[in-house]
């Protein structure tokens, strides 16, 4: 079975629609989301409705959690906090209830999904280094764990450190997938659909072939100008619009 693994949609409707069209074109049957459906961009309601009606699961992200209630935003940047405050005004009570009910981690057959880390799923720490990855890998009970949160595609192997599973700069295309090693345990960041931060503005997601242990990082062009204009029209910080063009 082919599954699409999508992280950090962040209310970017144009990117989400382009990614889903690509995934469906390759025959993906399930769509699993790594949290942060909302935040930063201008279409939280539309993205939430799409996500919750797809076959698959979604885990809780920190922007989802903060948008679902009136908790303090002191731990967020100024721009992130502004986007969450605006998002709260857009969501209905039903939307907030759905977000609040999301679990921080899920297991789907032989893979675990979590937004940030397995050692503290709602502590919202970042995994950028080998040492940070090892803390999560020690808690991992499946061969593969997919994560998001940093918005940067990256992979770690237990006891090995960072593993180059894909070239972040290459064009998505036929024959670019890899077969995952059977060991050690792998911790894989799927990047971001709605706000990439690896210097590539194109939306990122993974196609996972569960039977063959195949993995394919896809980078998808979308109408970034429409996404930028929507951010500005909503009155959100202009920096959030500009970073969509630079993938930063």
Keywords:
single chain, 248 residues, alpha/beta, Purple Acid Phosphatase, chain A, domain 2, six-stranded mixed sheet, 11 strands, 19% strand, globular
Describe this structure in words.
- The protein is an alpha/beta fold.
- The protein has one domain (2-246): Metallo-dependent phosphatases (Purple Acid Phosphatase, chain A, domain 2).
- It has helices spanning 13-25, 44-52, 62-68, 78-90, 93-100, 130-137, 224-233, 238-246; strands at residues 2-6, 30-33, 105-108, 111-114, 144-147, 154-157, 161-163, 178-179, 186-189, 203-209, 214-220.
- The strands form 2 sheets. Strands 3-4-5-9-6-7 form a 6-stranded mixed sheet, covered by helices on one side. The protein has a 5-stranded mixed sheet with strand order 2-1-10-11-8.
- The longest helix has 13 residues, at 13-25.
- The two termini are 33 Å apart.
């Amino acid at each position: 079975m082919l599954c699409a693994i999508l992280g950090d949609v962040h209310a970017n409707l144009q990117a989400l629609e382009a990614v889903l069209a690509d995934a469906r074109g390759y025959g993906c049957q399930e769509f699993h989301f790594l949290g942060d459906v909302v935040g930063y961009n201008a279409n939280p309601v539309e993205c939430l409705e799409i996500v919750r009606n797809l076959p698959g699961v979604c885990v809780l992200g920190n922007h989802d959690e903060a948008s679902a209630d009136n908790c303090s935003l002191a731990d967020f940047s100024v721009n992130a906090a502004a986007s969450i405050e605006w998002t709260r005004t857009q969501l209905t009570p039903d939307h907030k209830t759905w977000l609040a009910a999301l679990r921080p981690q899920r297991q789907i057959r032989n893979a675990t999904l979590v937004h940030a880390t397995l050692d503290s799923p709602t502590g919202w720490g970042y995994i950028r280094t080998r040492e940070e990855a090892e803390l999560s890998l020690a808690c991992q009970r499946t061969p593969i764990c997919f994560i998001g949160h940093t918005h940067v595609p990256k992979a770690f192997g237990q006891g090995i450190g960072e593993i180059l599973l894909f070239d972040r700069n290459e064009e998505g295309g036929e024959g670019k997938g890899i077969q995952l090693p059977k060991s050690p345990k792998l911790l894989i960041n799927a990047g971001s659909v709605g706000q990439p931060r690896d210097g590539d503005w194109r939306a990122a997601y993974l196609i996972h072939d569960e039977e063959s242990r195949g993995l394919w990082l896809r980078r998808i062009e979308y109408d970034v100008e429409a996404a930028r204009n929507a951010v500005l029209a909503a009155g959100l910080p202009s920096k959030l619009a500009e970073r969509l063009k630079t993938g930063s």
